[in-house]
Structure prediction request, 131 residues.
Amino acid sequence: MKSNSDSGIISRRPLPGLAALTLGGLLLAGCAGNPPTEQFALTESSVKEAVSAGGTQYAPVEMRAAQEKWREAELAMQKKDYDRARLLAEQAEWDARVAGRKARAAKAQRTVEEMKKGVQELREEGMRSVQ
Prediction:
C-alpha cells in the first residue's frame, strides 16, 4: 500500500517540470523563429530619412556603417539567421539616426554662419551709408 502512494508521488513530480521545460522550449523556438520584419521596417525608414537629410554628405562614416550593417542584416535574413539579422538591423537603425542628426546639425550650423555673414554685411553697408 505504501509503495503505491510513493510511486504516485514520484510519477507526478516530473510532469510539471517537464511541462515547464516544454513550454519554455516552445517559447524560445517561437521567438527565435520570427523574422524581424518590424525592425527591418524601422531600419529602412531610418536609413531613407538619413539619406534625405544629407547623411551621405555630412556624416559619411556613420552613413556608410549604417548601409553596410543594413546589407549584412539582409544577408542574415536570407540565411534565416533572424537573431543576427535583428541585431544588425538595430545597429544600422542607430547608425542611420546618428548620421541623420549629424547632417541636420551641420546644415543648421551652416545656416547660422550664413545668417551671421548676412548681418555683418548689412552692418558694413549701414556704416558706409552713414559716412
In short: The chain is about 90% helix and 0% strand. The radius of gyration is 30 Å. The longest helix spans residues 82-130. Residues 1-5 have pLDDT under 50 and may be disordered.
